[in-house]
Design a protein that fits this description.
- Strand 2, helix 2 and strand 3 form a beta-alpha-beta unit.
- The protein is globular, with a radius of gyration of 17 Å.
- It has 252 residues and is of the alpha/beta class.
- It has an 8-stranded parallel beta barrel with strand order 1-2-3-4-5-6-7-8, surrounded by 5 helices.
- Helix 1 runs parallel beside helix 11, helix 5 packs across helix 7 and helix 7 packs parallel to helix 8.
- The chain is built from 11 helices and 8 strands.
- The structure holds phosphoenolpyruvate.
Length: 252
């Protein structure tokens, strides 16, 4: 299980440090649950210091696929590992929607991240109209096949997928546990076709989209839901910790 907090473009230096410290202080360690927090890039170094010595992992929200060069405003994989990141979110729907990310750019980033020992959390998910028209499975299959094309991993631990139906992100409309399980099972099958059943079985598939303390138990207890990518509810230590406790309970 992995519970990852996506802070998006929230927090400043002091509130990021405070939130990170609050999470570390209130966290009960559970061997089966990994915890990651993904602050804004500008706060990564400070948050790395705040969680130093704890079991909380650091993640970034994006990266560029090149190593260096004239890419104003961008950050490379090596810059992220140097500051202490283990994870990087790639292809979040907000990046696809507002920053013109495509399955092709996602693929370049995923390959570079894996190559540089960062674990990509690759986001996939359909829009509301696509679900209503019955296209959700095909959309996700295309995002997986193009986004992961030629991705070479040694083990399932080198890759994380986040299923995030776009209609559920930040809207308060959560997928039902049945909808989440059904799509996660579909994704597991796609991963199995590409990487083999053993590797696919150990790739964590997170659910993301308005996961909160009051719906986390049901979502996280689905057999193919291996954790959560949490937006809004990760900005308060109390709600984030509560979701981590739900994850721990679901493994018990
Ligand atoms: C996200 O942005 O990854 C997310 C899941 O957001 P929220 O939990 O706020 O819906």
């Amino acid at each position: 299980m992995l519970i990852a907090g996506n802070w998006k473009m929230n927090t400043d230096v002091s509130s990021a440090i405070e939130l990170a410290r609050n999470i570390v202080e209130s966290l009960n360690e559970h061997e089966e649950v990994s915890v990651a927090i993904c602050p804004p890039a500008v706060n990564l170094a400070d948050v790395a210091r705040a969680i130093d010595g704890s079991s909380v992992y650091l993640g970034a929200q994006n990266m560029h696929f090149e190593d260096a060069g004239a890419y104003t405003g961008e950050v490379s994989a090596d810059m992220l590992t140097a500051v202490g990141c283990r994870y990087v979110i790639i292809g979040h729907s907000e990046r696809r929607q507002y920053f013109a990310e495509t399955d092709e750019s996602v693929n370049l980033k995923v390959r570079r991240a894996v190559d540089r020992d960062l674990v990509p959390i690759v986001c996939v998910g359909e829009h509301l109209g696509e679900r209503q028209s019955g296209a959700a499975h095909n959309v996700v299959a295309r995002q997986i096949s193009r986004g992961l094309e030629d991705v070479d991993i040694d083990s399932g631990r080198s890759l994380v997928i986040a299923y995030e139906p776009v209609w559920a992100i930040g809207t308060g409309h959560t997928a039902t546990p049945e909808q989440a399980q059904e799509m996660h099972e579909h994704i597991r099958g796609l991963l199995s076709d590409q990487f083999g059943a053993d590797t696919a079985g150990s790739i964590e598939i997170l659910y993301g989209g308005s996961m909160k303390p009051d719906n986390a138990d049901e979502l996280l207890s689905q057999p193919d839901v291996d954790g959560g990518l949490i937006g809004g509810a990760s900005l308060r230590a109390e709600s984030f910790i509560s979701i981590i406790e739900s994850a721990a309970a679901s493994t018990g």
